[in-house]
Design goal:
Radius of gyration: 21 Å
Largest sheet: 6 strands, mixed
Number of helices: 16
Structural class: alpha/beta
Number of strands: 16
CATH topology of the largest domain: Rossmann fold
Distance between the termini: 30 Å
CATH architecture of the largest domain: 3-Layer(aba) Sandwich
Helix content: 40-55%
Length: about 375
């Protein structure tokens, strides 16, 4: 559901009574509900969630890990996913029919995932296959809608994560001569570059103009990148790096591969969220770090490592706005409504889409 569509549905708007509750009342209510449901309730919390929410998470991690943990937790009848829409979709795809997945605020979407819809992708595929023949295999970042995962699954492709993207791109090139990488051009470009594919062998597909932006010869083309991005990670710039190098000459810069190629190239290290967390944990006391990823997570890392000097690579960066829609009032509201008629805030992927999307996920899980 789009942001505008969510706003137009009054039943998705939180009742005022939850906004009027104090922080202490809200926290107490969550504890009461966790005690009431026991093992029947599982609350996964993504790394980018606010501290006020993450304190109640039964598990923390990235989207795929949390979806897998939800599926493995057979006792959990109610899964209240503290993340964004595509994450809850993945959890619903992987869990069984006896489990219900809920999202505390249905407006918690992902701008990156919304940059590739099914109609655009089908149109792009038709034009690209006319141009390139049967030489193209689609890969999609897990940060995509269930419909895009299903499209990729139907075309013989697979999902990827920021942790296993290199493995999956290698796998894809064992299947076909070229790949279409959805929806994040930066992760696709950085991954392909790390595998030795030249930048002049990569093109960008613009879904708004239905055009392939490429200046080389078609026979040299290896990777078609979808023109999409993460609004948070694209906010880190080469100027940010220059400022850190000037002000903190001993500081290492570590960034997420959703950052632009220029930023990744100028950084000391780049890797997934788990990679960043682990790198800081293993770093020597007294070491200095500038981190290029979401602000809620950076602040949590800072608090967890007082023995190190840590800053955000862009100190004016805001937290992910859509992730921040999940807050204590919405969490309590969702928990209160778990057993009311109508499956309030339930995420349910249709069976046909779920089956095809699961193919894409299973290909990744089997290989990576």
């Amino acid at each position: 559901m789009s942001f505008l569509a969510a706003l137009q549905n009054s039943h998705l708007m939180i009742p005022e009574k939850y906004r009027a509750m104090s922080k202490e009342e809200l926290e107490q209510r969550v504890l009461e509900m966790k005690e009431k449901y026991g093992t029947k309730l599982f609350i996964p919390g993504h790394h980018y969630q606010k501290d006020e929410v993450i304190q109640f998470a039964d598990a923390t991690g990235d989207s795929l890990k949390l979806a897998q943990l939800s599926a493995d937790n057979k006792d959990a009848e109610f899964i209240v996913f503290c993340g964004v829409h595509f994450m809850a979709e993945t959890a619903d795809i992987l869990t069984n029919e006896d489990q219900k997945v809920f999202l505390p605020d249905m407006r918690a979407g992902c701008s990156m995932a919304d940059m590739a819809d099914l109609e655009q992708t089908e149109r792009a595929w038709e034009k690209l296959t006319q141009l390139l023949g049967d030489s193209l295999l689609p890969l999609t970042y897990v940060n995509s809608t269930a419909a895009i995962k299903a499209f990729v699954g139907d075309k013989g492709g697979a999902t990827v994560t920021s942790s296993n993207a290199e493995k999956m791109v290698k796998w894809a090139f064992d299947q076909k001569e070229r790949i279409l990488f959805l929806p994040d051009q930066h992760l696709g470009r950085n991954t392909a570059f790390n595998l030795g594919i030249r930048l002049d062998q990569m093109a960008v597909w613009d879904p708004h103009t239905d055009t392939l932006n490429y200046e080389g010869e078609l026979e040299d083309l290896k990777v078609v990148l979808w023109k999409g991005h993460c609004s948070v990670h694209e906010g880190f710039t080469v100027d940010n790096i220059a400022e850190v190098r000037k002000d903190y000459p001993n500081m290492k810069i570590i960034v997420h591969p959703e950052c632009s190629r220029e930023v990744v190239e100028l950084s000391d290290l780049a890797g997934s969220t788990s990679y960043i967390i682990n790198a800081i944990e293993k770093a020597d006391p007294g070491s200095e770090w500038a981190i290029g990823t979401e602000m809620n997570l950076v602040n949590r890392i800072i608090n967890d490592h007082p023995d190190k000097k840590i800053i955000s690579l862009n100190q004016h960066m805001c937290p992910c706005l859509t992730m921040n829609r999940i807050d204590l009032p919405h969490l309590v509201w969702c928990l209160d409504m778990l057993e009311t008629p109508g499956d309030h805030n339930r995420i349910k992927v249709s069976e046909n889409i779920a089956q095809s999307a699961k193919l894409a996920l299973e290909r990744m899980l089997e290989y990576a």
